[in-house]
Design goal:
Elements: E1 8-9, E2 20-21, H1 25-28, H2 30-38, H3 41-85, H4 97-120, H5 125-145, H6 152-168, H7 176-188, H8 194-218
Antiparallel strand pairs: 1-2
Amino acid sequence: MNTTPTTAVRPADTDAAPIPLPADLHQAHPAAHAISEWLHPKTWIVLVSLLTGRHAQHYAGLGWSLITILFAAVIPMIFIDSGIRRGRWDDRNVGARNARLLVMAVIITSVLIGIVVTPLFDGPTSLIALTVTMMATLAFLALITISWKISVHQAVSAGAVDIAAVIYGPWMLLGFIPVVVVGWSRIALGDHTPAQVAAGTIAGAVVAQCVCRRPVEQSGCSTPEET
C-alpha cells in the first residue's frame, strides 16, 4: 500500500525534520510571493547603491552606483538566471544548501572585483565601504549557511536600511517596516523559519554597522549636503 503523502515536503532548514507543506504553497500565498520577488536582495542593493552614490557625488555618484550595481546585482543575477535555465536550481531564491553556497561564492567574487575596480578610478569612499559591507555580509552568511539556512533576504534588506540611515539620518530607519514585511513573506512561503529570519535581520544590521559606519562617516557622506 502506497503511504506517500500527497503534500510536498519543503523544509525551511535542510537540517530540520521534513515539514509537510502544500505543493502549491507559493500560489496559496500570492501576496507573500509577490513581496519576496519585488523586495528581492537585488532590489535593496540597487536602491542603497543609488542612494549612496547620489549622496556622495550627486549625478556623477549615480554613475559610480551603476558600477556597484553591475558587480553586486547584475552579474550575480545573470549567473542565477543561467542556473535556472539549466535546471541547476528552481528559482532565484536558490533553496538547496550546496547550490546556495555556490551562488554566494560567485557573488562574493563579483563583489570583490567591484571593490578593486572602484578605488582604482577614484570612486566615492562611501560606495567602496558599501561594497566591502556587501562582501563581508555575504562571507558571514556563507559560513552560517554551511550548517543553517539563514535568511539572505533579511540580511541584505536590514543592512541596506542601516546604511541608508547612516548616510541620510535616523528617519531612514522607517525602512525597517518593509524589512519586517519581507520577513513575513519568507516565513509564509515556508522558505525560512522565524529564527532564520530574525538571525538574518540582526546579522545584516550588525555587519553594516561594524563595517560601513566609520568609512562612510569619514568620507563626509553622512553630513548634510550643501546645495
